[in-house]
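Collaborator request log, item 7. Partner lab (contact: R.S.) asked for a structural prediction of PE domain-containing protein to inform their binding assays.
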Amino acid sequence: MDGQAHHDRINAQLSDMFGTGTTEGKVTGGSFTYTESELRTIKDNWLDLANSYRTSFRNAEFMTRVQPPAEDMASKLHAAAANRSGESYKDYLEHNRRYCLQQAQLFQDALDDYLGVEHNNVTDINNTGQHGPQDGV
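Returned to partner:
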């Protein structure tokens, strides 16, 4: 589709939405599919990212133990602010790690549905080092 035809198509869709006084668009026949291998890869990528956040969380522990360089009030206040900032950063890392695990679980559930097997918990799979269905399935 050339640029002008694409532009005209977008204009037609937008005029349909705004001409009716609603913001509801028309969805036409879109779909997507994943193979078993793609589901496994995506799930594993989410787990790898979760593990990366876990490593960063452990490394960020030092950011919460800043000691003041001196006993004056300014040094103590700066160290306290740095420690609070480190705690906030750790909260951010933990939030993102949990999100990655949730996404991995969604892909694991989809994979289990695809294979017709009982749902597995990705944290159990990740802890045992297994990726995918159990032996004999």
